[in-house]
């Protein structure tokens, strides 16, 4: 082979390579041109659409509401959107629950508290293509103001609370934009237990829900729970007020623990320390000594027990009752059980929707009670447990499993979820509990149970300063610290008794829920201090 | 130890007057019976079967061939599955037994056999520890167990287990 030949071959190779390169370049140029064309077209499109969007005043994100103007506009509640409103043009403020765009139309579900309605934006006389696109792009959970025509629908909309109408949107404005990504989905929070498992759908665990409580509280279940809870408080107040009780307010910062010093929070109080009240016990008793006769108190109580169970909180709402009686503390029991029965009846009659809403997610049997309320003595309870094979001592306190089992046995025998267990052993009760006159081992004290779990603890209190001092000494309590309490009984004190109920527990057990955190809006437990 | 007490209870329940003497063999303490006429018998089921023969109550080993096989199967189950079972196995045993006993009075059908006695002795320590809720969950096992513990002469060295006649955990709430 000559030198030339070699060179020629090399050139050929070069040429071949450059040919390939050329083709490649050409292709790329074409691509770029196409892209540019497309972009130009898009820009032109958007420009032209900007120009011919006839509906551009009908949607958008208006100025932040800073109370610039006071419109006469009437905002209709979603709940009120019924066929009677058909063919009316109305304004609604609601959240975007879900949205689904499909070609020239966009379906929205608008939610207001536990109610929701289907709404529709469709390209037509009132809405442009751009408006539909805007509506479809509003983030979930944003708050919008919507002007719409109410239209009757042929087929019921099963997924909404307002099943007979839908809204044909004519204007839509975003009042508050939500972030595009939510920490959790509302649908995942209301999915019935166990249902998501089969189709692999997510359920949100409780901690995540509590971490994002504000969103979790928006669910229909949460709304129903807290409406019912509000109902319990109201029924409690109404019933007692009708019975002639006076509502009192007691201090929560106190100088001495009322029920033994172990489980109280200590707070620094200037140069000394104080405690957070475990119950308004001492104060409601002092009110009795001050002739208030029948008092109740609704307020926070604190327990520094380091127990992480389904039914313990470190701060909860106590519903406390204290009343003077004539001759027998059963007058007190009757008064309290009647109050409870009035609450149960009120819930059953006025909160059926809420009960059913909660039942959809957490199914349970309806709450049963007897009238008058069943009262068992402690010894009878122990006998029932022994008969069922439980080995326990006469003066032993009920353990949680035994408490629950006894609840079961009582339900089976008497068909009630609510009963009173009377005459507890004296040894397991606080120092101010009145001993039983017939048997020193027992006391005039009682617990009340719902679905086998304790909701109320109460007793006849010692109203005699002498006996009270004896019992305090027996319990090794520093007399100096409870001097003012004991002194209140030195100037004439009527016989009295009472009890304290945990609001959250009542709601939890009435609804048959499994965790007290579900019925506490912002629960506090040893591991949770936020939100 | 346990096997001795079990065999001595069995002797009594069979109505055998003269108690036998047993020894053990190996790490697992397999019971051995030295009889006067013949070689030593080894193993719980073998000895138990022998005692039944001695008491002239062959029906306890099953009537028909099929019945006999069933009895043998459950005796074997007792030795292989129940004895020395771990905590995790208990759930499986209870679940299996419960579904098996759904339509039966006794282990091998409608007649009381040696399988019932030995299974009762073998499973007693499990049942005695069950919570009421567990007992109710495995109600067929509990019903069978209650039936056997009340069967004339069976119980002997074991404490009675309380069995509720009514269901108390009827709803889903716990």
From TrEMBL, chain A:
Keywords from UniProt, A to Z, are:
Acetylation, Aminoacyl-tRNA synthetase, ATP-binding, Cytoplasm, Ligase, Nucleotide-binding, Phosphoprotein, Protein biosynthesis
Region described as Disordered: 1-54
Tell me yes or no: is Manganese among this UniProt entry's keywords. Answer: no
- Look up the record and give one Gene Ontology term from the biological process aspect: aspartyl-tRNA aminoacylation
Q: Name one Pfam family in it.
A: tRNA-synt_2
The reply to whether Nucleotide-binding figures as a keyword in the UniProt entry is yes
Recorded superkingdom: Eukaryota
Q: Name one GO cellular component term.
A: cytosol
What stretches pass through the bilayer?
none
Q: What class of enzyme is it?
A: ligase
Boundaries of every Aminoacyl-transfer RNA synthetases class-II family profile domain copy: 226-531
Q: Name the reaction it catalyses.
A: tRNA(Asp) + L-aspartate + ATP = L-aspartyl-tRNA(Asp) + AMP + diphosphate
**GO molecular function list:** aspartate-tRNA ligase activity; ATP binding; RNA binding
Location in or out of the cell:
Cytoplasm
EC no. given is 6.1.1.12
| UniProt biased composition (Basic and acidic residues) | 25-40
Please give the subunit comment from the record. Homodimer. Part of a multisubunit complex that groups tRNA ligases for Arg (RARS1), Asp (DARS1), Gln (QARS1), Ile (IARS1), Leu (LARS1), Lys (KARS1), Met (MARS1) the bifunctional ligase for Glu and Pro (EPRS1) and the auxiliary subunits AIMP1/p43, AIMP2/p38 and EEF1E1/p18.
The UniProt function text for this chain reads: Catalyzes the specific attachment of an amino acid to its cognate tRNA in a 2 step reaction: the amino acid (AA) is first activated by ATP to form AA-AMP and then transferred to the acceptor end of the tRNA.
Annotated family: Belongs to the class-II aminoacyl-tRNA synthetase family. Type 2 subfamily.
Identification of the protein by name: Aspartate--tRNA ligase, cytoplasmic
UniProtKB/TrEMBL annotation, chain B:
What's one GO BP annotation on this UniProt entry? positive regulation of DNA damage response, signal transduction by p53 class mediator
Q: Name one Pfam family in it.
A: Arc1p_N_like
One GO cellular component this record assigns the protein to is:
nucleus
Tell me the domain of life. Answer: Eukaryota
PROSITE patterns membership = GST_CTER
Residues covered by the GST C-terminal domain: 50-172
Identify this protein by name: Eukaryotic translation elongation factor 1 epsilon 1
What organism does this protein naturally occur in? Salmo trutta
Gene designation per UniProt: EEF1E1
